[in-house]
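Supplementary Note 3. Input sequence used for the single-chain structure prediction.
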Amino acid sequence: MVVSGDPSKTVFDLLSNPLPEIEFLPEEEFLAATQEVHETPFDDKFLEYEVRLPKDWVKKTTADISNLGVNQDVLGEIAAYVSPPRLEDARSEFKVQSLSLSYDIAASHWFLQHVLSNAYNLEGIKEHNERRVEAVYVVVRDDTTFVVRAVAIKNGKRIILAEFFVPQGQWQDERVLAAQGMSSFDLMNTDKSYVQKIKNYKFLDIAEFSYPDRWELRTPTIKTTERMQARLLNANRDLKILNGQIEIYVVSAGVVESLEDELLNFKKILTQKGLQLGKLIDVSQDFGFDESMKFGVVESYVATNDDKNLLEYELWLAVMASESYYYFIPMVTPMRTEDFMNWSRNVGDFRIVVANTKPIVDKPGMESE
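The predicted structure, written as discrete structure tokens, is reproduced below.
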């Protein structure tokens, strides 16, 4: 996906812009200059938040909060605070929005879509983890240019977006409190629900995984418990287009000489299927693996398919180990730069599959053989 019509830049070039470096105030000085705000809008525990704002800011009344409950996609502002009035400039403002998600997606991927759809000028961004992203961007509102320090947190079926608006002429004076205040913003309760309907599949009484129901499950007959597999397809059958494929391989540790050798053999199998692995894109060990896993890592590669005229794809490969089994989960998805929307949704679904792949346990501390 091209950014702002510039063919030399893609949406992921935005992620390479780091947050501006700002030296925070000493903790005692910061606490003295701010007030603690701790609220539970609409008595919804998953909207409960805390943040520290400048001491002289005041809360807007409910009647002042715009867009409240406008539609099911943008639930609107659930809280807002403003600075004292200024003679020659607009007020600074802090606001929190609750926005419903249409599908499961990482906070940073949602945020990039949000920035692009609103044509914001993104100055810097930091992905803290799959659930939290922080950014600085410039917007024009009511003929006034604002610099915005923002935090977006994915919480269950919603994105909670908190923004600290500062008129550009006041930014130099307020940027430290904006940055330090937004770093203090957090939700008090984690919602672990998924946006999509989730299904479950079991490899006999040995292992299981969960997946969003938009994927088509294919399961060959299990002939041996030493090596089992299943496949998930995301296809447009009318157009005969494969939008994504995830496979789950469960291999008994008793038939594996070493994880390294098995991984090499597995990559050879992928090559034999016509998938050529290219440059390594990323390696991650922060993927929400089940607690039963003794080891887990996810690698992503540029890949080409011999049967697709060398079109570029990405291969994501999760490798995990429990007490008695190894788990290999490859996903093939259209390249992020070619189909960002489909790519981001596939990656979100891949996270669900990986996080919910685990051995079936009969008793605490005992893994099924």
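Residues 1-8, 66-74 have pLDDT under 50 and may be disordered. The radius of gyration is 24 Å.
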